[in-house]
Write a sequence for this structure.
């Protein structure tokens, strides 16, 4: 019995790890939900994988992995201070030096979300200081202790900097809100001219914050270890005890992100709580993401995929999983509890709508990964993020139900050559209607008077918001566009043509963007200050495309020039010359749902002339019997032949099988994604609908492929009546997409609700005339 107990204890100890530099410690957010140390029950951090789990999931993780040691972290708020407590949670309790080191390491480590914030923060890229290479350092005998620093002038113990020339230890600058220091380090530079200072408390083996007063910027010092050693500081033994300047920037920005700038003035907002009424924390300029995702998860197509979360396991990099996790967090009602009362600063009689809410840190990191804009903490355009997110949905839902189909529709463009009167019809896929704003159609006469006074230099001229009729915007959208440089295949020359745009199909949910953001004459981005009487109901039936008219002649199709030319041909592995295809265009077409081989042919037969020409080719050849057949070049074998079965990594196979999938399913996923594990995991979770019926043979081909059946060509679009009702809109406050704040209003059970990050309240006066993105749903006839 004692030997068995000792054996169990040793096996538990063998699984406990001490965090090392580079380990990702998830101590802010549960991997399977939005539980955090702030929630009831706290967070349990696995002392082997360093993944965090809420109380409802820790037993499940233990049952699946056998892990027994978890660090239980809870955080409570008392008089504006967060008190963090931690306890060892073991199915078998034990104590050892290794356990103590692991606990201390987890608590001291920066959390993954904190690390991501610092990595994503778009601060200035620091340059090497021009003073670093030849910095003068005085031999004055000054030695600086490794801790316990105070300002030599005022005894301040925070925001302490050491001058790298004379070793003087002084406090930093005073911030705009009165905090920080008393400017003694700056005054010392002004008196001595010694340029560089390092912030004590930020020194680690990896670097430190160095400021150049002469260059007035944060800088790099490649000789920092040498400069610190001059004053007795061993950089390799130092630990960070204060926030870096980047971390301070993030903290300031998050305070700004809590503005309650878009409120309904003159009304008392009643806080709301319950399923579908969960607020989202602002992670620093993340209000654009919060507003868009709140609206999307009111669409039934996005709600219906939440069952994924039941079948997913600990997958910290899966788009489908994190989308489902976010949806469950918003819709379940588990996280919409009121935030703790901050104390006596707020009037107790004033209702507060702030919630604990959820912090979508992992989700934001995933959807922004690799994107030049959404991977940063800068403010973004909500419309661009919506399209980016839909694009990710398209990539990850290649089979089965695809929620983005709710917004997908076909646009028909009719071009009429004015010289021959012959027409050309093309179709393209779209997800959003971009509505122009004809400023010359403003109905308020005081607008022109105010503009005249400003042009004359009258500083007292009032700011007047232009009032634009919605009907004028729709007229600008539907009126024919004049093309002055159109090449007509009928007359074999450039001439004038008219282009008319209509709906070839009407989606279940229609998104309308008001094109408020534009460029001034100096090419500086600006926002149009307009009020538009957007209607609650919309009938677009009159904009239905009619196709070719009786007796109407079509412009002749002219074969494009040959793609294979001496300057672009590439020798193929079989000895023939293969064309160079525009991979970008091929990828865009594939993401719309077209078969890969059809996309290649579209790009080839349109001579690499762009996405529009390739899309037109696809629309005109979708009914061809060989539409999905491989591209066959002149002089090449027409048979696809056979290719050797590609071997897959046994390690990757074992990883996917450990998630609960069969070996055949794992094999198919790896072969479909060129044996790349991350892509294979994404692929298998985006094909869950097909897994039960997936009959995979030894050759890695499904039964449908073995029988030669092709997937249905072309993007799937839904169609129905063009009558809609407004159910949500996203509003923006600020002068451009690069700054400001977003909120959204959503109609729930005939009641408008305002979602302003963590604040969720009943809306009394929804500002429907000031929206940026409007969301309509089809009205059933």
């Amino acid at each position: 019995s004692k030997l068995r107990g000792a054996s169990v204890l040793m096996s538990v100890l063998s699984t406990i790890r001490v965090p090392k530099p580079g380990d990702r410690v998830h101590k802010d957010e549960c991997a399977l939900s939005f539980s955090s140390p702030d929630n009831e029950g706290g967070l349990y951090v696995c002392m082997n994988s360093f993944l965090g789990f809420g109380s409802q999931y820790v037993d499940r993780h233990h049952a699946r992995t056998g892990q027994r040691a978890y660090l239980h972290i809870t955080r409570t708020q008392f008089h504006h201070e967060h008190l963090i407590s931690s306890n060892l949670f073991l199915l078998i309790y034990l104590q050892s030096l290794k356990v103590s080191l692991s606990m201390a390491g987890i608590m001291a480590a920066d959390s993954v979300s904190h690390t991501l914030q610092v990595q994503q923060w778009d601060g200035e890229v620091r340059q090497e200081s021009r003073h670093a290479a030849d910095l003068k350092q005085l031999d004055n005998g000054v030695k600086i202790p490794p801790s316990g620093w105070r300002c030599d002038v005022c005894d301040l113990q925070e925001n302490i900097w050491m001058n790298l020339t004379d070793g003087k230890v002084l406090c930093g600058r005073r911030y705009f809100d009165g905090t920080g220091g008393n400017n003694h380090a700056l005054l010392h530079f002004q008196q001595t001219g010694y340029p560089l200072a390092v912030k004590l408390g930020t020194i680690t083996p990896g670097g430190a914050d160095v400021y150049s007063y002469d260059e007035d910027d944060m800088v790099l010092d490649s000789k920092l270890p040498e400069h610190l050693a001059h004053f007795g500081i061993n950089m390799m033994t130092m630990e960070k005890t204060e926030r870096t300047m980047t971390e301070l920037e993030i903290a300031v920005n998050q305070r700004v992100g809590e503005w309650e700038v878009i409120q309904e003035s003159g009304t008392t907002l009643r806080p709301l709580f319950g399923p579908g009424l969960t607020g989202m924390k602002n992670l620093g300029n993340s209000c654009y993401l919060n507003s868009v995702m709140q609206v999307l998860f009111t669409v039934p197509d996005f709600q219906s995929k939440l069952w994924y979360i039941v079948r997913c396991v600990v997958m910290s990099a899966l788009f489908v999983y994190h989308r489902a996790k976010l949806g469950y967090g918003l819709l379940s009602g588990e996280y919409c509890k009121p935030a703790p009362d901050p104390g006596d600063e707020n009037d107790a009689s004033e209702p507060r709508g702030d919630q604990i809410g959820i912090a979508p840190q992992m989700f934001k990191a995933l959807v922004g990964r690799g994107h030049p804009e959404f991977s940063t903490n800068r403010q973004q355009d909500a419309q661009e993020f919506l399209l980016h997110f839909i694009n990710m949905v398209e990539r990850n839902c290649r089979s089965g139900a695809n929620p983005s189909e709710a917004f997908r529709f076909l646009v028909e463009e009719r071009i009429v050559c004015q010289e021959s009167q012959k027409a050309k019809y093309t179709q393209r896929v779209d997800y959003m209607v971009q509505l122009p704003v004809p400023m010359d159609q403003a109905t308020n006469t005081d607008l022109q008077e105010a503009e005249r006074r400003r042009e004359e230099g009258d500083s007292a001229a009032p700011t007047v918001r232009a009032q634009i009729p919605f009907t004028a915007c729709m007229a600008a959208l539907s009126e024919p566009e004049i093309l002055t440089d159109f090449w007509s295949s009928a007359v074999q020359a450039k001439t004038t043509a008219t282009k008319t745009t209509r709906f070839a199909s009407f989606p279940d949910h229609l998104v309308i963007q008001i094109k408020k953001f534009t460029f001034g004459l100096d090419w500086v981005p600006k926002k149009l200050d307009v009020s538009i009487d957007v209607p609650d109901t919309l009938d677009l039936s009159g904009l239905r495309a009619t196709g070719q008219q009786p007796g109407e002649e079509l412009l002749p199709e002219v074969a494009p020039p040959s793609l294979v030319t001496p300057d672009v041909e590439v020798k193929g592995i079989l000895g023939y010359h293969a064309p160079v295809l525009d991979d970008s265009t091929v990828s865009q077409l594939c993401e719309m749902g077209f078969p890969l081989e059809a996309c290649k042919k579209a790009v080839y037969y349109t001579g690499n002339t762009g996405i529009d020409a390739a899309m037109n080719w696809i629309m005109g050849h979708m009914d061809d019997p060989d539409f999905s057949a491989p591209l066959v070049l002149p002089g090449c074998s027409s048979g696809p032949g056979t290719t050797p079965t590609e071997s897959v990594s046994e390690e990757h196979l074992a990883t996917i099988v450990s998630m609960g999938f069969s070996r055949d399913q794992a094999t198919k996923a790896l072969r479909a994604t060129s044996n790349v594990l991350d892509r294979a995991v994404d692929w298998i979770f985006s094909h869950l609908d097909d897994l039960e019926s997936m009959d995979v043979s030894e050759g890695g081909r499904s039964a449908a492929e073995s029988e030669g059946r092709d997937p249905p060509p072309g993007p799937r679009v839904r169609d129905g009546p063009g009558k809609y009702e407004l159910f949500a809109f996203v509003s923006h406050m600020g002068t451009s997409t690069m700054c400001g704040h977003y909120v959204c209003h959503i109609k729930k059970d005939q009641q408008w609700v305002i979602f302003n990050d963590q604040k969720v309240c009943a809306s009394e006066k929804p500002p429907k005339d000031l929206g940026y993105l409007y969301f309509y749903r089809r009205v059933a006839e």
Remarks:
- The longest strand covers residues 493-503.
- Residues 382-396 form the longest helix (15 residues).
- The mean pLDDT is 75.
